[in-house]
Write a structure and sequence with these properties.
With 234 residues, the protein is α+β, with helices and mostly antiparallel strands. The chain has one domain (27-226): outer membrane lipoprotein receptor (LolB), chain A, CATH 2.50.20. It has helices spanning 3-16, 29-46, 92-109, 115-118, and strands spanning 50-60, 65-75, 81-89, 125-135, 138-147, 155-162, 168-175, 183-195, 198-210, 214-221, 225-226. Strands 1, 2, 3, 4, 5, 6, 7, 8, 9, 10 and 11 form an 11-stranded antiparallel β-sheet that branches. It is globular.
């Protein structure tokens, strides 16, 4: 074919081809969190209680100290939690000053009248869109979260929000405030997974630099979830 004719035909085909649609812009941080809040509200309304056996481990590298705790957690339909320690090992100081404080803090935070103050929402945080990423082959939106108050149970860091379910799948951050003078810094990664339509904790890993004691690593494995037994009949 004549080269000039070929170029003319190619130009004609390109001119007649419909323009491709521009790539869809990702939703804004405000839109993502609005959908997250709506989905969370629906999940809270449909949730039931559960029972789970957790495994806690604290390890200090400087003094080669290790402590463990196994706990039965019962969550009511309201979200209120009760804890029953099944067994422990390691120094009594860690069991009292670390493990017991963790359980007491979570128990207080789970009270129905306190849940809204600790919730991931626009009331408690400012959000900025960072980008997208994958967890387990699933697409997620990544947001930067900054607390709006000095509530010690809030955090600052990044959220991975499942793009299909609009649920928090991962938090990578640090407490909004240092828990005490003795803790120089803390960093944690908290992973969630879907269980019967609810998004529940799966694993928590944190590293803390503690004055005099050095680095301590804490791991919480949340185990499997099961329905609580029916209440006993009178």
């Amino acid at each position: 074919m004549n080269p000039l004719l070929a170029r003319s035909l190619l130009t004609l085909l390109l001119w007649q081809a419909p323009p491709s649609d521009p790539p869809a812009a990702p939703p804004s941080a405000d839109e993502i969190v609005a959908r997250l809040e709506k989905a969370d509200q629906a999940r809270r309304q449909s949730r039931s209680g559960y029972v789970s056996i957790r495994e806690y481990t604290v390890e200090n590298t400087r003094f080669r100290v290790r402590a463990t705790m196994q706990v039965e957690v019962t969550a009511e339909q309201t979200g209120q939690k009760r804890f029953r320690i099944l067994k422990t090992s390691g120094p009594a100081a860690i069991r009292k000053l670390v493990f017991q404080r963790m359980l007491d803090t979570e128990r207080r935070a789970s009270a129905p009248d306190r849940q809204s103050a600790n919730r991931i929402s626009r009331d408690n945080y400012s959000f900025q869109y960072v980008g997208t990423g994958d967890i387990g082959g699933r697409p997620h939106y990544i947001l930067q979260a900054e607390p709006k108050s000095k509530n010690p149970l809030l955090f600052r860091g990044r959220l991975w929000i499942d793009a299909s379910h609009y649920a928090v799948a991962r938090i990578d951050g640090a407490p909004a405030q240092k828990p005490s003078f003795w803790v120089k810094s803390t960093r944690f990664v908290h992973d969630y997974s879907e269980v019967n339509g609810q998004w529940l904790p799966r694993e928590n890993r944190s590293d803390s630099e503690i004055r005099l004691f050095g680095r301590s690593a804490t791991t919480i494995l949340y185990g499997s979830y099961s329905a609580p037994p029916p209440p006993a009949k009178n």
